[in-house]
Design goal:
Layout: E1 2-5, H1 10-22, E2 28-30, H2 41-46, E3 54-56, E4 62-64, H3 66-76, H4 86-113, H5 128-149, H6 162-174, H7 186-196
Parallel strand pairs: 1-2
Antiparallel strand pairs: 1-3, 3-4
Length: about 200
């Protein structure tokens, strides 16, 4: 088994943090995304979309998409549970994971990918207006999330889950996107400090 890893990119980091929370170690194959190595035939043979991360099992099966990889490890190693427990708990974590992915991380990614000079060969065409259109969406999501975190310690409830990983990655990604959490979103800032203090955050 080996994990084709993309370094500091958000999606590879999501999987590494998930594995760190599980206490699991998987051999990494570093792929230099800045040199567009993820577009080489090696990765295309594993994932036709040429995106990272990709988990290659010993029998040659390739699993791509960050949450799918995390699901594989959750099924093999259910403790600690990072994707919920029981029908309701699992559904709630999935709901919040999806919300953090689609209503925060995606908006931040759109700001970054359609404005940052380093992305001009990745996002073709780069549409500056689309970047600007997503900036207020990020802020609206943060205000909404702040209201939710007034009532609990973590995104999906009382325990740390994959939803917190996705949200933390989104907040981390705001720095290169030249965005910042507003000071008035104090609950988000307090939550972020808590999750960044976890050892897994450095994975």
């Amino acid at each position: 088994m080996k994990l084709y890893d993309g370094g500091k990119a958000p999606n590879p980091r999501r999987v590494r943090i998930f594995l760190a929370e599980k206490g699991l170690s998987v051999p990494l194959v570093p792929i230099d995304m800045s040199a567009l190595e993820h577009r080489d035939t090696q990765i295309a043979g594993l994932n036709p979309l040429r995106r990272l991360p990709v988990l290659e099992l010993d029998n040659g099966t390739a699993i791509s998409e960050s949450v799918a990889i995390c699901r594989y490890f959750e099924e093999l190693h259910p403790d600690p549970p990072l994707m919920g427990e029981g029908p309701v708990g699992k559904a709630q974590v999935e709901m919040w994971q999806r919300r953090m992915e689609m209503h925060l991380l995606l908006f931040v990614a759109n700001v970054f990918r359609h404005a940052h000079p380093a992305m001009k060969d990745w996002e073709v065409p780069q549409i500056t207006q689309f970047s600007e259109a997503n900036r207020p969406k990020v802020m609206e999501s943060l205000v909404w999330l702040d209201s939710e975190l007034q009532e609990r310690d973590f995104i999906a409830g009382d325990v740390f889950t994959i939803a917190d990983i996705t949200a933390m990655i989104a907040i981390d990604f705001m720095k290169p996107a030249r965005l910042a959490v507003p000071d008035e979103c104090s609950a988000v800032l307090e939550w972020y400090a808590r999750v960044k203090a976890r050892p897994s955050a450095d994975a």
